[in-house]
Amino acid sequence: MNKQISQDDVLKAWAAGLFEGEGCVSIYQRKSGSFRLQPKITLGMTDFSAVKQFADIIGVGNISSAILPSGKTIYRWQCASWELVEYVFSLLGPWLHERRTSRFREVMAQKPLFLLKPGQCHSLKTHCAHGHEYNEQNTYNKNGHRHCRICQRFNSAKWRSKGIHNELS
Q1: In whole angstroms, what separates CA 145 from the centre of its chain?
Q2: pTM higher than 0.90 for the full model?
Q3: Is residue 80's pLDDT more than 50?
Q4: Sign of CA dihedral 7, 9, 11, 17
Q5: For 22-70, how does the pLDDT look when each residue is reduced to its tens digit (9 = 90+)?
Q6: DSSP calls for the chain
Q7: Which of 18, 26, 14, 30 lies closest to 75 in space, CA to CA?
Q8: Rounded CA gap, 65 and 42, in Å?
């Protein structure tokens, strides 16, 4: 049984193949100073016509260019929002290899962290900065914040050993 493949599907498959070889799916912390994760997908090449055709097929994102140290111009297509990354994955997903598909899913799994208010991400942490587990025996709350008892004991002992408490009396 021969199934007819539409021209639209052929173009999406071509775009997926190009993305497999030249594309990147990443996540980064926004520069706003808050803990806000942002996804970004890019495709970079020195062949402008291929990048332009890719952008036309996808229909979202923008193209920029930069001069490489070799003197060549690299053209980069990118988009960076949760909705656009989901949309691009819906277009290319059926033709992507499992490696690329799993990377899209890995990045999209971070979306719940994006929806948190600044500071709320700390409530998801299971260990303190020094690797001690936050559990009932090792954790206390002060002013609405969790603290590690092991680190607190260490810091208190260090503070006492410096004799600072004697100077304050």
Answers
A1: 26
A2: no
A3: yes
A4: negative
A5: 999 998 776 655 556 788 999 999 999 999 999 999 999 999 999 999 9
A6: -PPPPPHHHHHHHHHHHHHHHHEEEEEEE-TTSS--EEEEEEEEES-HHHHHHHHHHH--SEEEEEE-TTS-EEEEEEE-SHHHHHHHHHHHGGGS-HHHHHHHHHHHTTHHHHTSPTTGGGGG-SB-TTS-B--TTTEEEETTEEEEHHHHHHHHHHHHHTTHHHHH-
A7: 18
A8: 12
Q: Per-residue pLDDT tens for 106-164?
A: 888 877 766 666 555 566 677 787 888 888 898 888 887 788 899 888 888 887 787 65
Which residues have C-beta within 8 Å of that of residue 65, sequence separation ≥ 6? 48, 73, 74, 75, 76
Domain ranges of the chain: 7-118, 125-168
Beta-sheet pairing, 23-29 with 37-45: antiparallel
Domain 7-118 belongs in CATH node 3.40.640.10:
no
Q: What pairs with residue 75 in β-bridges?
A: 45, 65
The span from the CA of 62 to the CA of 6, in Å, is: 26
Closest CA to 128 of 162, 154, 107, 109: 154
